[in-house]
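ugh ok fine here u go
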Amino acid sequence: MWLLLLLLCASLPSCTSFSAPPPPPPQPSLSPKEACKLFGRIADKYILLDASAGLCCYSACSDCEFRDPDGGYRMADMSAARPKWVCSYARREFKTEMAKQHTSAWAALFSSDKKLGKAAFVEGVAALPFAAPLGGPYLSATEGAEMGEGTGEALFELLGGGEFITERGMERGLKKLGGGAEEGIVWKTFLGGIGGA
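structure:
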C-alpha cells in the first residue's frame, strides 16, 4: 500500500514529501511573579459555588445528596482571607432563600464597555488593584503594582485573543483555562494554564 502511495506521490509535481502538520502556535508564557501580578488583580476572596448546596444541614447524614463521594460537602459559597479564586463568572446570583449574589473582581473591566480591544483590555487589567493572593510567590503591594511588558497581552491571548474580548468571552476563556471549572480557578491551575515556568 505504501509503495503504491509513494509511486503516486512521486508522479505528481506538487507532492514532493510527506510532512507533519504545522505545530500549534506557541502559548504565552509568564514567569510565576508576572502571573501572580495578574492573579492578584483578577482573583476574589469570595466565590459562589452551588446554590442547592446551601440547603444542607451539615449533619453528616449517610444519604445526603449534598455530600461529595470523598465525604466532603458541596458548599454554596466559600471565602478566604486573601484573593484565592479567579471566578469563571462575571456575576452570579442565587435566587433561593439564601439570596446571595457576587460580582467578580475582573467584571470591573467591562463596567463601561461591553467589548474591549487588546490595548483597552491590557490598560484595564493594569488599572485593577493588586492584592497579594493565596498561592504563588509572595509579592507586596508595591511589587505587584506594576505589570511587566507583555503580561496583560498574555492574558488577552490566553483568553482567546482576536480583535476584542467581551465579558461572556472572558467567562468562556476562564472556564477553558480552568479545565471546564464552572466556578473558579485557583493559583496552581491558573499558573499551569498561563504557562508559568
